[in-house]
Specification:
The protein has 788 residues and is of the alpha+beta class. The chain contains 23 helices and 20 strands. The radius of gyration is 37 Å and the shape is extended.
């Protein structure tokens, strides 16, 4: 099949699978005409899959007013473009689907294809969406919604709080409300904190730009003062109009002037090199310190944000912003900003000199500038959309990598390496194709600007040459000399070179502005849980927790907890019981103030948690989770995570109390043994005992236990339970457990169902009442007997 370009002129790639009517053989075209009549045909794409998903031949035909799908010589699908809202390419494992979204919000599956055809059908979707003027961000939000429906995932719809524009993620900045100019001004303001370096860099940049004006002046002096007098002294046929003594004297003067010019030029380039060294060093330091501050502020903000943000945002996307986006900003500050300052100063300086030499010729040289600015504005808009798409697709790729690496054990357990490779390659191709769009746009923009500016140079050559010829016999004050023309041409090249760079900075500007925008969107993200101005720290908390009429919803309209009332006395151990999804973990999260109640309040020692400084509250709470998280580092560092200043004696005592000291000492490096990423070098029971030792060392007033013994063997459970008994003594404890036998020693059990408290009492009282708790106990007992 012959390669063809897209008909709309905006395509950035050639697809061998997309054909125009003239590319079809006559018989093929005739059969199409029999089916479709004389309806105009724009493109034809053949697929290697049937609509049902089986291997076979099918064909999509794009016309001016309609899209048809043909199988076995029969039109099986057709839709009018007037009825379309958009086209979407949905990705599956090994194949894809082109889906039409009809104006009344219905979806129609048009055609299936293997991954080898993905680019061609993606091109068709882009053409149609451009024709329908589908907003790029609206389209991406719809695609995300479709993807979530196809996988059964619940994906919330995010919208800008100001204008309601759809967003791909909660932390995304709104393309309609965000001004690139304001983003870049904000980025520049980051330099204000280092104004001394910025001023030094500006002065050195100005000096560097000024030193660039010297060579042109030296060229004029070389021609008019050193070389031209010798030419004037030689008449037709090589006759000399001067006496031999005068001629030799003239030649010696020319030599002397040439030596002065060469020495001056050498001194100039030496000074320019020294200035460049210090300028590069100063601007490099400035850029590094600015981006260091930006990255630190970003990481600090991520620590400040509440858990609701991480519920909505993928870890890989966050990492892309912290690492990749800040690097893009750094490249802009390192190279683009300082080059932009130099180029602006150079353009202004040379412009002034050109107008001082010959203002009419200078005005002629500037004629292409308006056209250059218009094209720069046009391409700037295109680059803006392209880099938004690139950043989103790269974030998706990063998120996929982070997720796959975290779940590598699952991938290998199910033998899904090839599937993950295919999924990665698809997303990697998306990034590649998005980047190609910027490459093709750059390929058009650069030569176009160069061609326009060359017109200005040609105009100067023409008019300047005519001026030299017309004034050659005029007196010196009125002559436009050859040296002046060479000076003008030299300055013209120096003028247009930085001007072209400034225009080409459109791409770097848009890429950096997009990256900075994504970084600032996190910096501006408010924390749903934070300290107000009157919040005070806790002072020696006793652990009296009172929950009053608390309701909570993760999403509006879906209440997870409903009117919870609970009073927990200091030192009391409360067990939370209920089926999965009953609200146990959510209630604990509210007590820890990972979230704030939607309704009602939680009091600690009579004080509303919202009036307590979050840090002091968290310092008063210790947690032992079902899946304990250990940081890469040593056992000592993990035990002392909550108390970095703890002594060696305190760490060992905590480990002994957690029944961990013995297995630690059996390791080759003892307390200095590395636990590996997420504690992978240790068993589940060992990690859990390290987690208990960490909680013991912290010595909290309130203790939260979440399924702490559910994933270990019986012998390990006994050791952990013994350590837990030591840990809970004298502390207010809230324990969650599905294995109800672990809660028999609790002072009180609270049974939840559908977000409500339905039973309370001791183990014996709840068994006597023969309610939900008693039923759960019987089920677990029967299951244990069946297993035995």
């Amino acid at each position: 099949m012959p390669a063809t370009d897209s008909n709309d002129g905006n395509s950035s790639s050639h697809h061998f699978n997309i054909r125009r009517p003239e590319d079809l053989n006559p018989a093929d075209l005739q059969s199409l005409r029999k089916l479709l009549g004389e309806a105009p045909i724009e493109a034809v794409v053949d697929s290697d899959l049937m609509v049902a998903g089986t291997y076979g031949q099918s064909r999509l035909v794009l016309g001016d007013e309609r899209v048809w799908v043909i199988e076995h010589g029969v039109v099986i699908r057709q839709v009018a473009l007037a009825d379309l809202a958009s086209l979407h390419c949905r990705e599956f494992v090994g194949n894809g689907l082109l889906e039409a979204r009809i104006a009344d919000d219905r979806r129609l599956e048009l055609i299936r294809y293997s991954n080898t055809m993905a680019d061609a059908f993606g091109e068709i979707a882009e053409r149609v969406n451009r024709r329908l003027s589908v907003n790029e961000d609206e389209l991406e939000a719809k695609q995300d919604e479709i993807a979530s429906v196809s996988t059964g995932a619940e994906r919330p719809t995010y919208r800008c709080p100001n204008c309601g524009h759809p967003l791909s993620a909660a932390s995304d900045s709104c393309p309609k409300c965000t001004s690139k100019r304001q983003v870049m001004l904000r980025l520049m303001r980051l330099m204000a904190g280092h104004w001394k370096l910025a001023i030094v860099g500006l002065v050195l940049s100005a000096a560097f730009a000024a030193s660039g004006l010297g060579p042109g002046l030296l060229v004029r002096e070389l021609v008019d003062k050193a070389l031209r007098p010798m030419e004037d002294a030689i008449g037709p046929g090589g006759t000399v109009s001067l006496t031999p003594a005068e001629f030799e004297d003239q030649r010696q003067q020319g030599r002397d002037y040439l030596y002065v010019i060469v020495v001056t030029f050498l001194a100039l380039i030496t000074v320019r090199g020294v200035i460049s060294f210090f300028r590069t060093r100063v601007m490099g330091i400035l850029s590094e310190v600015v981006v260091k501050d930006l990255r630190s502020n970003l990481y600090g903000t991520l620590q400040r944000l509440s858990l609701s943000y991480y519920d909505q945002e993928h870890t890989g996307r966050i990492m892309a912003r912290v690492l990749t986006d800040t690097r893009v900003v750094q490249r802009f500050v390192v190279s683009a900003v300082q080059q932009m300052v130099i180029d602006i100063l150079t353009v202004l300086g040379i412009g002034i000199v050109l107008f001082s030499i010959h203002w009419k010729l200078a005005a002629l040289a500037l004629l292409p500038i308006p056209a250059v600015v218009l094209f720069a504005h046009y391409f700037s808009t295109r680059f803006k959309k392209m880099f938004r798409s690139v950043r989103r697709k790269y974030a998706t790729l990063s998120a996929s990598v982070a997720e796959t690496l975290s779940g590598m054990r699952v991938v290998k357990s199910f033998g899904q390496e090839d599937r993950e490779i295919d999924g990665f390659n698809i997303k990697n191709d998306d990034v590649y194709n998005a980047r190609l769009l910027t490459v093709y746009a750059r390929a058009k923009f650069g030569p176009l600007v160069g061609w326009l500016t060359s017109l200005g140079v040609l105009a100067v050559w023409l008019m300047g040459g005519l001026l030299v010829l017309s004034t050659i016999t005029a007196p010196d004050p009125l002559r436009f000399t050859l040296g002046t023309l060479m000076l003008f041409i030299t300055y013209m090249n120096q003028f247009y070179t930085p001007l072209r760079r400034l225009m080409s900075l459109t791409e770097a500007f848009q890429e950096s502005a997009t990256a900075a925008e994504r970084v600032f969107s996190i910096l501006d993200m408010p924390s749903e849980v934070g300290d107000h101005d009157q919040a005070t720290p806790l002072q020696a908390p006793r652990g009296h927790i009172r929950i009053e009429n608390v309701s909570f919803s993760y999403k509006e309209g879906e209440r997870v907890l409903k009117n919870i009332n609970l009073d927990i006395q200091p030192g009391e151990m409360i067990g939370l019981v209920g089926q999965t999804g009953s609200g146990k973990s959510t209630l604990v999260s509210l007590v820890c103030r990972f979230y704030d109640p939607t309704k009602g309040k939680i009091l600690l020692d009579g004080k509303d948690l919202r009036d307590v400084q979050v840090r002091s509250l968290r310092e008063s709470i210790g947690m032992v989770l079902q899946d304990p998280f250990l940081f890469a580092g040593t056992i000592r560092e993990n035990i002392a995570y909550g108390r970095h200043a703890a002594s060696e004696v305190d760490i060992v005592q905590a480990a002994k109390a957690a029944n961990a000291h013995e297995f630690i000492m059996n390791l080759p490096d003892g307390y200095d043994s590395e636990v590996g990423e997420r504690g992978l070098m240790l068993s589940g029971g060992e990690k859990q005992r390290i987690s208990i030792a960490r909680a013991i060392l912290k010595d909290p007033a309130i203790l939260v236990l979440d399924e702490a013994t559910s994933a270990v063997d019986t012998a390990t459970e006994a050791m952990i339970q013994e350590a837990m008994d030591r840990l809970v003594t004298g502390r207010t404890t809230i324990a969650i457990a599905h294995r109800l036998s672990t809660l028999r020693n609790a002072d009180r059990l609270v049974v939840l169902a559908d977000g409500e408290i339905i039973e309370q009492g001791t183990h014996a009282e709840l068994l006597d009442s023969d309610g939900t708790y008693a039923r759960l106990c019987r089920i677990q007992a029967e299951f244990a007997q069946a297993v035995e």
